Amino acid sequence: MSTRPAAPIAPIERTSSARIPLEHRQTLFVRLVSGWSRRRYGAVLEPGLAMLHNRRVLVSVSRFEMAVEKWSSVDQGLKDLACAAVAAQIGCSWCMDFGWYVSRDKGLDVAKLEHLSDWREADVYTRLERSVLAYAEAMTATPPEVTDELVADLREQLTDEQLVELTEMISLENLRSRTNSALGLTSQGFKDHCEVPAP
């Protein structure tokens, strides 16, 4: 969630499936948070609206996310691919929607997003990308299914510093996707405003 979209998002008429109200009394804090989100992403992000019910949670998560944006030992495309795999496995339509949008802005090959469901057979991935996808899926399984072999394979291709960053990104996307799914947050329509075709 670190990239500014290329164009503003127009309001989308839809019925929210959120399990928590996304409407708030317009206090100064709510207006500041909403304004910042609109400037940065072209829309007020619904996970932020949900977290506005607990200001400490919102501020803590926002600070952490801003710090995460500065992590740079792993290629951004690899991290985006890992996050998309997690969101797809968990079934978080909000994360898939927003993830496609920002990944397109960062230049991730659309074909790599389109083939997440059949990545083992698709020929659009490098060896490292396949290793990352396998690791993301294994970490996301409940209970986790990470093996010594999976980690050894990644250590042949990444430094230990990179492996730690990748692992934390996958864990973070599990947090995002599971939180959004539990709160009933679904696709907000970001993907409809970019050139990424539907899978």
Q: Provide the CATH architecture of one domain.
A: Up-down Bundle
Assign the CATH topology of one domain.
AhpD-like
CATH superfamily of one domain: AhpD-like
Taken from the alpha-carbon principal axes, the silhouette is: elongated
Instruction: Give the N-terminus to C-terminus distance in angstroms.
Output: 21 Å
SSE ordering: HHHHHHHHH
Residue fraction in strands:
under 5%
Number of H/I helices: 9
CATH C-level label of one domain: Mainly Alpha
Q: Unreliable segments (pLDDT under 50, ≥5 consecutive)? A: 1-14, 194-199
| Radius of gyration, whole Å | 17 Å
- Report the strand count: 0
Helical proportion, percent range: 55-70%
Arithmetic mean of pLDDT: 88
Structural class: mainly alpha
